[in-house]
Amino acid sequence: MLSLWKEKDFLKLWTANIVASFGGQALGLALSVYVFQLTQSALASGTMLVAGTLPGLLLGGVGGIYADRLERRSLMVWVNVLRALLVGSLVYVRGLEDLWWVYAVAFLQSALMQFFTPAEQALIPLLVPPKKLLEANASNTVALQVVRLIAPALGGTLVALYGLGWVAALGASGFLLSSVLISLIRYRSRAKGLESKPPPFKLALREGLLEVKRNRTARALLWVSGLDALKEGALSALFAAFTLGVLSASAQQMGFVNSIQAVGGLLAGVLVPRLVARFQPRAVISVGLALNGLCLWAIVTFPS
What we know:
Elements: H1 8-39, H2 42-67, H3 72-88, H4 99-123, H5 133-161, H6 164-183, H7 201-214, H8 216-246, H9 251-278, H10 281-301
């Protein structure tokens, strides 16, 4: 990370990403707590999850294609401005009669993220030299895990003590500050050579699907990712009901349980590159998924 301090534009993007992620993750936990406490319904909590994940299924491929066709910095700025407006509107949510708008905000914010994330990923290579690209991506991953360590616990505490409005204000402020930082980024001249004219929209989509069809590894990873997402979806949908209902935990405790998962993410960031250097990647993935399943079995079998 120290070698990246000279890359001022990347540091602006890195900081903007941290600020936006902090508010977003705090809000995500707070919304789960708010919906369950308001309804005492696992179905309502599950609907909250569906609202947040459905855009990824509908727009996941489309967002990346459009990110190649629009000016990425401007796209990211306007996405964050729109997210700030949506999240800020949650300050006016008062009860069950406004629950539909909570779902709508979760859906629309997730839809906007399908355009923001690929634009960010495509922007990083334009801001750092090729030899620093791996380090830049790694620093982003570690930073997001640190955010995940703090933000959910803070979100759970704020929603328990002060209500949803405070967390919504925190999230909106983070998105606006992130927009300002991204707007200050200036492309380097060396980046121009990396830019190429993107293929037509239909052709790009068709080529992506064909690549998955003819590439056995891509198909396998798609299946693994899909099944893992199904597992994560079920876990996330029932997380509030399990911790607040079955375990009778407080919102703060739920936040800390969520945050502690980031410790595993930080350890993985250190261990996985070393494991992949010694073993086949498919072996690391397989063992990791198996151990993950055992951990979930232990949580359900010994609830505490």
